[in-house]
Amino acid sequence: MVHLSWQPATQKRALVSVALVALSLTLYVSGTLALTSAVALPIFALLVALHTSFKVTRSRLNTLLAASLWLLALISGFAIALYRPGNFTYPAVHHFSELGFTLYPNLAKALAGYFIIIWLWEPYGIGQGRTRAPAALLVGVSALAVLCAASFVFKIDWQPKLPDGILWFVLINFGITVVAEEAFFRLLLQDGLAKLVLMASAKKQRVAQWGAAAVATLLFALAHASITHPLFWLFLLAGGVYALVYQCTGRFSAATATHFGVNILHFTLLEYPLTL
């Protein structure tokens, strides 16, 4: 038997999702979103919404359907974030002349991330038994640890700066890059995989959660650098820290704050952008 669970908030989530679909169509008409993204985003939102409806049970059919929807959502989410037609470019927001790079907001990635947040975000994820580490202290220490590793272990040059247009970097990096990536890797991948492991086997919740954190860490690194690139290990470390913060606190906001803390410290204190 298939076990579905629709929460009272489903109608509100559906209405917000419809508004985001309308926004994506508006962006397409305005030329700031590719047609492929405008078509794929509603499908992705539907997959994520359906995935949330499955209860954690030992039913083989329930597990198979939930896993299929989750895998389709995962693959389509990756595709939406990474694919860009050759004849399409996102609008430039700001050119950092002193750094030699231009800031482009990946709007498809942002919309996909917010669809995930609408349907999957809960105050403490699925791990109600997680320890409640002092979140603010853990965030600060974790961000500084990644920064120190980048500088002293991976030898990224120390280049303190406060370039013109930094506010644009803060807005785009936090509101699009960090929020979307953490939604994907924490809420969809890390929590989703842990939930599926619990559905498919009798393993303890903590084992499922730490296993999912390890998988999310590896995929985070692979999404940012080739495994043969020297900086792959830095991204593996960073992804592991974000997964650890989320696992220890159960707070999406803590993982997001750590990720953004690393990014803004990197941008203002070290060589930026990196050559990948």
Q: Which helices and strands, and how do they pair?
A:
Layout: H1 10-29, H2 35-52, H3 60-82, E1 94-96, E2 101-103, H4 107-120, H5 135-153, H6 166-200, H7 205-224, H8 232-249, H9 252-269
Antiparallel strand pairs: 1-2
Helix pairs in contact: 1-2, 1-4, 2-3, 2-4, 3-4, 3-6, 4-6, 5-8, 5-9, 6-7, 6-9, 7-8, 8-9
Low-confidence stretches: none
Biggest beta-sheet profile: 2 strands, antiparallel
Number of domains: 1
Structural class: mainly alpha
Number of helices: 9
Question: What's the rounded overall pLDDT mean?
Answer: 91
Distance separating the two termini: 48 Å
Order of helices and strands: HHHEEHHHHHH
Beta-strand proportion:
under 5%
Computed CA radius of gyration, to the nearest angstrom = 19 Å
Strand order of the largest sheet: 1-2
Oligomer: single chain
Shape: globular
Q: Level of helix content?
A: 55-70%
Number of E strands: 2
Describe the structure.
With 276 residues, this protein is mostly helical. It has one domain. The chain contains 9 helices and 2 strands. It has a two-stranded antiparallel sheet. The longest helix has 35 residues, at 166-200. It starts with 9 loop residues before the first helix and ends in a 7-residue tail after the last helix.
